[in-house]
Specification:
219 residues, alpha+beta, 11-stranded mixed β-sheet, 9 helices, 11 strands, globular
Length: 219
């Protein structure tokens, strides 16, 4: 699966990128904001990948101007409940003081909420002020009973997203070019079943150009 918007691409995680992700995931700069902070071995990473390479999980490498800068995910996808849990981290430090994290989050939210029509849960460490700040701008709200929890649960619904992110989305369309969203489903997506689920959920009223490609379909 590849989602493209302008010079930003989300590319489905594959075996070739597991070591890159593992090295950065073990970095103290990143692991300090994760619930699991133990060292991850190559063997553990391989076993983890086997467990998530299915229709209930989607891990995507974030690429900006052909440079891999982070990882974003939709995990524990419940196609019956129309929900999933999202997560994101960047390993390139220079992006933090730029609009890029917000732009990346908006592209992902547009796909999940407005095209595939799923609500998003997210766990954010209570000490991660930066992540809390820009997730609230998107419309995430703290779930009930989470005030005293270290790894807090947030929820983003379609209604909150459309209302609270209105100004952010307006700025987004000024900052980024007017190129369309292109969602390309590849053969492996059909093998593990996620492509069929995505096709069933795509909103038919979202303007989209569908074209055949060598590896699948692009939306």
């Amino acid at each position: 699966m590849i989602l493209t918007k302008g010079n930003i691409r989300f590319i489905k995680l594959c075996k070739d990128d597991l070591e890159l992700v593992r090295q950065w995931r073990n970095s103290p700069r990143i692991s300090q904001y994760m619930e699991y902070r133990e060292y991850i071995t190559p063997e553990m990473q391989q076993e983890w990948f086997k467990s998530v390479n299915n229709k209930h999980n989607l891990y995507l490498i974030i690429e900006h101007d052909h440079q891999k800068i982070g990882l974003i995910n939709a995990k524990h996808i419940d196609w019956d409940d129309h929900s999933l849990e999202g997560g994101i981290f960047f390993w390139e430090e220079e992006v933090y003081n730029t609009p890029l994290p917000a732009i990346v989050s908006l592209i992902f939210a547009e796909m999940i909420i407005r095209i595939i029509r799923l609500k998003i849960f997210a766990h954010i460490m209570k000490t991660n002020d930066r992540a809390i700040r820009y997730n609230r701008q998107l419309g995430f709200e703290l779930c009930d009973g989470q005030e005293g929890v270290e790894n807090q649960r947030y929820l983003l619904t379609t209604e909150n997203y459309l209302i609270k992110s209105a100004k952010l989305r307006k700025a987004f369309y000024i900052l980024i070019d007017k190129s369309p969203f292109v969602l390309q489903l590849e053969r492996d997506d059909y093998v593990n079943g996620i492509a069929q689920m995505v096709e069933q959920r795509i909103d038919p009223f979202v303007p989209a150009e569908i074209r055949e490609t060598e590896s699948g379909k692009a939306y």
